[in-house]
Amino acid sequence: MPGSVRQRQPGVWELRVYVGRDAEGRVRHQHATFRGTKKAAERALARMVADVDRQPAVVADSAERRWGPATTVNDALAGWQANGWDDLSPSTVRRYQNIWDNHIRSSIGTRKVATLSPYDVERYFRELKAQGLAEASVRQVRAMLHRACRLARKWSGGALPNPIADTELPAWTLADRTEVRTPTVDEVVALLQAAADDVRFAVLLRLVAATGMRRGEACALRWSDADVVAGTVRIDESIVAAEGGAVVKAPKTRASIRTVAVDRASIAELQRLRTVQAKLAADCGDALDEDAFMFSNEPGGGTPPYPDGISHTFASVRQAAGVAADVHLHSLRHFQPPPSTR
User: Fold this and answer.
1) Going by C-beta distance under 8 Å and a sequence separation of 6 or more, which residues neighbour residue 156?
2) Residues 100, 83, 246, CA angle at the centre, nearest 5°?
């Protein structure tokens, strides 16, 4: 499976892997941006190629596809996936796939678009609410269905209806909404103590609690982002989970790019972690440069940590600490007031 590495600027590489052709015969590639050394970029490319090789062959969407009475909601979603999802971010694609698999595919997904009524769809939304799905999640389900059925209507030349267009969501009261619970000081201390044997994760956990940064932002931190003299950390990238691994992503807004103040004790822990990471790299015949990812599992820090892996580690630490299950990694963002920025 051919692939290529192209330098976009010093320390920034574009990785590209050929994945086949679409229904119109156009060549398709999987792209990723990588920051680090060329050697690390080549290793990342090799992993991308291997992941693409393991995936089942992509079957081009047939140009003969019939959009008509037999078209199901799953067909509409599959058509949108084949002709539109490439324009979405990896995290959005992953979220849509999870929603489809968990809430649509085996239920309303099997229904024929032409036979669905707004009544059927609204009853389905109420069933999702009764199952405990949050308002935001049901709203996303509706948005996906609306987009897929609108496209199916267009591709059928108006022969198919869009049964989602006139639907309304159920009402959620304050009692229905689950607020994110802010952990107590004792709970945060217990989490840090339970993570103490893993200095890499312990420092990440401490930094999230001290600054309120997001999981993906913590995963994207590089050693060049830390100013130990000024006591600050620069946040200007994020890591998102995608097919085949973690991908570096630019922030959505300029406001997401910020420099946050960090307490001296946390800065000291960062310095301790750097010493540990540098020794690990040296033991493996590598070096820890400024562009290395702080919390990487790889000697030399060439690859960022996988966000879902961080969440799984947090779940294990939370259990070991005896902290309630309603405290999530995201809950730590609320532990501190909004951090000061520069």
Assistant:
1) 67, 68, 71
2) 60
Q: Which residue has the tokens 């940064």?
A: 213
Give CA separation, 33 vs 36, 214, 215, 239, in Å.
10, 20, 19, 11
Cα 204 to Cα 192: distance, rounded to the nearest angstrom: 10
pTM, two decimals, is 0.57
Q: Give the DSSP letter string of 100-129.
A: IIIIITTTGGGSBGGG--HHHHHHHHHHHH
Spatial distance between the Cα atoms of 45 and 51, rounded to a whole number of angstroms: 10
pLDDT per position as a tens digit, 167-203:
999 998 766 555 667 889 999 999 999 999 999 999 9
Three-state SS for 282?
A: helix
Q: Contact, 261 vs 320, CB < 8 A?
A: no
Q: Is the pLDDT of residue 23 over 80?
A: no
Per the listing, tokens 């015969």 go with 25
What one-character-per-residue DSSP string does 4-39 give? Answer: EEEEEETTEEEEEEEEEE-TTS-EEEEEEEEES-HH
Helix (H, G, I), strand (E, B) or coil at 61: coil
Give the whole-angstrom CA distance, residue 282 versus residue 277: 9
Beta bridge partners of 239: 248
Give the three-state DSSP class for 228: coil
Tell me what the mean pLDDT of segment 37-43 comes to. Answer: 85
Taking the CB of residue 6, how many other CB atoms lie within 10 A of it? 10
